[in-house]
C-alpha cells in the first residue's frame, strides 16, 4: 500500500448505451438476413460437374501413388533404423579401446611381450597388466561394435538400392503406363475445361455474395467488441475508483491509528514525569491538617452546649511532620459521633468512587478486623502496614468525618478512627505512611519511568512497522 493517496483514474466519457447498441445490431441483422437469402439461392443451384470420360487412368494413377507412398514409408523406416544404429555404433565406439578384435588381440600381444621381456619398470608393468585386463573386459563391446557396424553397412546398402529402383524393374513398367494414361487425361481435361469455366463463374458469384455476408458479420462482431470493450473500460474505472476510495479510507484509518498511538505516547510521557505518591502525600498532609484543626482543645466559650456530666476527651498529640510542630488536641466538641459500619449501608454516602472503596474497605476489614492493609496496591513497593487502636468500651466518645475525609483515609489505606482514643494512633500511622511515601517516591518514580519508556519504545516500534507496511 502506498503512503500517498491513489490517483483518481480517468473516467470514461459516457456509460455504454445498451438500448442504442441493440438497435444498431437489429439493423445489421436485417441486412444480414437479406444477403443470407441471396446466398442460399446460389447454394441451391446445381453446380456444373466435370465429366469423367475414362475412370481407368485415375485408378492406375491411384495405384502408382499408393506404390510411391509405400516406397516412401519403407525408406523413412529404413532411415530411422540407420539413425538408431549410428547412435548405437557411436556409443559402442566410445567404449571400445580398439575398433576391431584383431587390433585388440594385437595390442594384448604387444603388452604381453613387453612384460615378458623384463625391460619394463614395476610401475609400467603394473600399468600394462591393468591395460590388458581392461582390454579383455572390453572384448564384448568390440564384438558388439563390429556387429552393429556390419548391420549399419547392410542397411546403407539397402537404402541405396531403394533409391536406384526408380527407373528399373517394376517401377519402370508402371511409369510407362502412367505416361500413356496421361495423354488420355489431357484429352479429358480439354473437354472439361468449358464446364469448369461455367462452374468457376458460378463459384465467383457465390463467393462475392459470401464475402458481402462475411463483411456484415464482421461489422456485427466489431460492433459487439466495441460495445463490450467500452463496458469493460467503464467497469474497470468503477473498480479502480472503488479501490481508490478504499485506499483513501485505509490511509485515513492508519493515519488516525498512528495519531492515537502518538497521543498515547505523549500521555505516557506526561504520566512518567509526574512524581509517584503525589496524591497520597497530599492526602496525608490534608488528613494531618484536618485532625489537627478539628481535634485540638476547645475554649470554654466553644463548649457551652456540652453536658455537665460528660467526661473530658483525651488530649491527642500529633507527631511532627516535615519539621512542623503539630498542635495538640485536647478535646472534641460535643455531639461528634461516627456511625458504626453495621448501621450505615453502602448507600450512606452515594458516590461511585466511595462505594467502590467502601466495598474494598469492608472486605479488608473482614480479613484483618480493625487492622488496615496499608501497603501499596501492587508492585514491588508497598507502604508499611498501619494499625489503628481499638475503641475502648469505657464510654469513649465516637467521632464522625465528612465523605471527603473518609475518601482520603481510604486512598492511603488507613482506617479512620471511630473514637477520640484512636486519633493519636491514626495520626501516627498517617505520619509513617507519609514518611514511607517520601522515602520511596524517587525509586518508584524511576521504576515507573522505566516501564513507561519501555512501553513508549514498543509503541514507537509499532508506529515504525505500520509506516513500513503503509509505504509498501
Automatic annotation (TrEMBL):
Composition skew (Polar residues), residue ranges: 51-65, 298-313
InterPro entries: Bfr1
Composition bias type Basic residues, residue spans: 357-369
Bias kind Low complexity: ranges: 185-197, 382-395
GO cellular component, one term: nuclear outer membrane-endoplasmic reticulum membrane network
Residue ranges of the region described as Disordered: 37-76, 185-207, 298-335, 349-398
Biological processes annotated in GO: intracellular mRNA localization
Gene Ontology molecular function: mRNA binding
PANTHER family reported in the protein's UniProt record: LEBERCILIN DOMAIN-CONTAINING PROTEIN (PTHR31027:SF2), NUCLEAR SEGREGATION PROTEIN BFR1 (PTHR31027)
Name of this protein: Multicopy suppressor of BFA (Brefeldin A)
Amino acid at each position: 500500500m502506498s503512503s500517498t493517496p491513489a490517483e483518481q483514474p480517468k473516467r470514461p466519457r459516457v456509460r455504454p448505451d445498451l438500448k442504442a447498441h441493440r438497435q444498431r445490431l437489429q439493423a445489421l441483422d436485417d441486412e444480414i438476413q437479406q444477403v443470407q437469402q441471396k446466398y442460399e439461392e446460389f447454394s441451391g443451384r446445381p453446380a456444373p460437374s466435370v465429366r469423367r470420360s475414362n475412370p481407368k487412368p485415375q485408378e492406375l494413377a491411384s495405384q502408382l501413388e499408393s506404390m510411391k507412398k509405400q516406397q516412401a514409408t519403407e525408406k523413412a523406416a529404413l532411415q530411422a533404423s540407420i539413425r538408431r544404429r549410428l547412435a548405437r555404433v557411436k556409443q559402442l565406439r566410445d567404449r571400445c579401446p580398439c575398433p576391431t578384435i584383431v587390433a585388440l588381440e594385437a595390442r594384448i600381444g604387444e603388452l604381453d611381450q613387453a612384460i615378458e621381456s623384463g625391460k619394463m619398470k614395476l610401475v609400467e608393468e603394473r600399468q600394462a597388466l591393468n591395460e590388458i585386463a581392461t582390454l579383455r573386459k572390453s572384448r564384448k563391446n568390440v564384438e558388439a561394435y563390429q556387429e552393429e557396424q556390419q548391420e549399419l553397412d547392410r542397411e546403407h546398402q539397402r537404402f541405396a538400392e531403394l533409391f536406384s529402383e526408380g527407373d528399373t524393374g517394376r517401377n519402370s513398367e508402371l511409369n510407362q503406363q502412367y505416361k500413356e494414361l496421361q495423354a488420355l487425361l489431357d484429352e479429358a481435361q480439354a473437354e472439361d475445361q468449358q464446364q469448369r469455366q461455367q462452374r468457376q463463374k458460378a463459384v465467383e458469384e457465390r463467393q462475392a455474395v459470401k464475402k458481402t455476408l462475411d463483411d456484415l458479420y464482421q461489422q456485427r462482431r466489431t460492433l459487439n467488441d466495441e460495445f463490450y470493450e467500452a463496458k469493460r473500460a467503464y467497469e474497470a474505472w468503477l473498480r479502480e475508483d472503488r479501490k481508490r476510495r478504499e485506499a483513501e479510507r485505509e490511509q485515513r484509518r492508519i493515519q488516525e491509528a498512528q495519531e492515537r498511538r502518538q497521543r498515547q505516547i505523549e500521555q505516557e510521557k506526561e504520566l512518567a514525569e509526574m512524581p509517584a505518591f503525589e496524591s497520597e502525600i497530599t492526602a496525608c498532609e490534608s488528613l494531618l491538617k484536618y485532625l489537627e484543626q478539628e481535634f485540638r482543645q476547645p475554649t470554654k466559650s466553644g463548649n457551652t452546649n456540652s453536658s455537665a456530666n460528660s467526661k473530658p476527651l483525651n488530649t491527642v498529640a500529633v507527631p511532627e511532620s516535615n519539621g512542623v510542630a503539630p498542635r495538640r488536641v485536647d478535646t472534641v466538641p460535643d455531639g461528634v459521633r461516627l456511625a458504626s459500619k453495621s448501621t450505615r449501608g453502602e448507600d450512606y454516602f452515594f458516590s461511585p468512587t466511595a462505594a467502590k472503596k467502601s466495598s474494598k474497605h469492608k472486605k479488608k476489614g473482614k480479613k484483618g478486623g480493625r487492622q488496615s492493609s496499608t501497603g501499596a496496591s501492587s508492585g514491588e513497593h508497598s507502604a508499611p502496614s498501619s494499625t489503628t487502636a481499638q475503641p475502648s468500651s469505657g464510654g469513649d466518645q465516637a467521632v464522625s468525618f465528612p465523605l471527603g475525609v473518609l475518601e482520603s483515609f481510604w486512598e492511603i489505606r488507613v482506617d479512620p478512627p471511630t473514637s477520640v482514643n484512636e486519633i493519636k494512633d491514626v495520626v501516627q500511622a498517617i505520619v509513617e505512611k507519609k514518611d514511607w511515601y517520601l522515602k520511596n517516591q524517587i525509586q518508584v518514580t524511576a521504576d515507573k519511568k522505566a516501564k513507561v519508556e519501555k512501553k513508549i519504545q514498543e509503541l514507537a516500534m509499532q508506529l515504525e512497522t505500520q509506516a513500513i507496511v503503509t509505504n509498501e
